[in-house]
Amino acid sequence: MDAAEMAALGWQIVVADSSGAALAHQLDRMADGGAELVVDTRGAAPGALTLAAGEAEVAARIGLDTIQDYEGQETLRIQTEAADWYYHKFGGGFASILDRDGKDWLSFRPWGGSDGIYRGIPNMAYPDNVFHPGHFNCTTSAPVAGPLRVTFETWSKDKVWGARWRIYPDHAEMTVLAV
Prior knowledge:
Blueprint: H1 3-8, E1 13-16, E2 25-29, E3 35-39, E4 50-53, E5 62-70, E6 73-80, E7 83-88, E8 93-99, E9 138-140, E10 144-145, E11 150-156, E12 162-167, E13 172-178
Antiparallel strand pairs: 1-4, 2-3, 5-6, 6-7, 7-8, 9-11, 10-11, 11-12, 12-13
């Protein structure tokens, strides 16, 4: 039985390296009925991984909550070991990334020019103003959150633009779904 079949049945799984040591993992159920297995292989013994039914305690390395008003908008806050990421749900962009020293690497503010309103990432759909913090031209799906990854999608209201974000403890990945 594969991971998707196990997830469909509501089973828990255990992932182990070639020495039998359990590895941190999460199984995300996807909207299309499938599943994605995320495994942290740092420090794993080389060789094949094994997948078995059972329960395994996985320590969370990432957290998620919603802030009702961060720089003028409802915001997803993703907390990782390296930084806290602040994503404007209706603008479709990150307003802030605060590192562990409190430095804001983006510094979006809903006023000014290059010192505020023009800041943020990804800023990729000008002049449509989608995927930019501070605007209200997008909708963001309910995030799928686990101990190792947070995944969400953002679409322009007209469905012309779409992107999927996957945030991990040490990096982020964006996949453009529609242009």
